[in-house]
Amino acid sequence: MRGEVHSVIGLGFGDEGKGVVVDWLCSKYDPDDTYVIRHSGGHQVGHTVKLGDITHVFHHFGSGTLRGVPTVWSDKCTVSPIHFRHERDVLVLKGVQNIRFLAFDRCPITTVYDIAFDRVFNKQDSVGVGFAHTLKRSELLQLQLSDLKYKTATAIKLNCIFQYYFKKAKELDKVDLFIENVTKLEGDKFSFEEDCEYLLDHCKLIGNSNYTPCGKIIFEGNQGVLLDRYHGFFPYVTYGRTTNYNLQDFIKDQWVSKWYVTRAYLTRHGAGPLPGERMGIKLINSEHETNHLNDYQGEFRVAPLDLHLLNYAMYCDHQDQKNNADVNIVMTCVDQIENSEEVIKSVKRSTHRPLYINTSPESITIKGYEE
Prior knowledge:
Layout: E1 5-10, H1 18-26, E2 34-38, E3 47-51, E4 54-58, E5 71-73, H2 81-93, E6 101-104, H3 112-121, H4 131-138, H5 151-171, H6 175-186, H7 192-201, E7 204-206, E8 216-220, E9 256-263, E10 265-269, E11 300-304, H8 307-320, E12 325-332, H9 340-351, E13 355-357, E14 367-369
Parallel strand pairs: 1-8, 1-9, 2-5, 2-8, 5-6, 6-7, 9-12, 12-13
Antiparallel strand pairs: 3-4, 10-11, 13-14
Helix pairs in contact: 2-7, 3-4, 3-5, 3-6, 5-6
């Protein structure tokens, strides 16, 4: 692999297998000289990695964490103290060691009120953790990671945020439901204040907006290009960017090895267009699937892979980030479809790019493909 900078981006509607690819890239380097940078999205993602006896769905932490690779959290990404504490505690219980988390001090903080209003307002295109509402609210009323060091200022801002959402809930005639969700969240094991203290205790703050770590860099994207707020299909899009657009905040004129990820079939969680869905697709060997029906996104949907959408997604990403680059494609879940050889050959011929395939939940089975 040429260069020391890699970027992993999903070409679909999310759930392509980005975590597995990031883990695979991390396996090639010394964890003390490697960094996984989350440059978009936030704690709403779910990237599944299986390494040995440990399987984990990553939300706040980079997908190299099981290998001891530190995570760098961009200020384009939201941080939820509640979910951060829960996830780190789970990782510790699983026996994961050397968990390192560095975050820009201007990261927007997700509060219990963002989460509560998210669950009141929309159950169709959200995972119910307050991601999009945090970003929208932050345009008017900010609470940043570094603010948490100042308790009085944080308390005042939290009250302002509560009033902000209380007014919105009142306009929707859903005040009771909003308060019910707030009470439930505040009644969990730890208080929000304790969660904030825990976050600060287990996070190294980065104050330099031009910071780029020295060493091997693996950028880990979120969701998929077809959900990007500018390239996706409105209104079924995410509030953030899902292409390599934000890489320009970190690197200038550096060679990048791009790793575009797709399943061997299309997936979508929740509402929105999914071409070919009516045709149906029979899946096999899918007992390890971590995406399931939930209260906020709805059902997990599948369809045959669409080559036109695949090439469109690559085109969109190229428009957003034009560094000199090697472009590779990784196809995951190849073992889950019966006509895998046919799909592999069609992708290879359509994209004219180096193709890698994965045939298990573990990254160790990623191999280069040659016709």
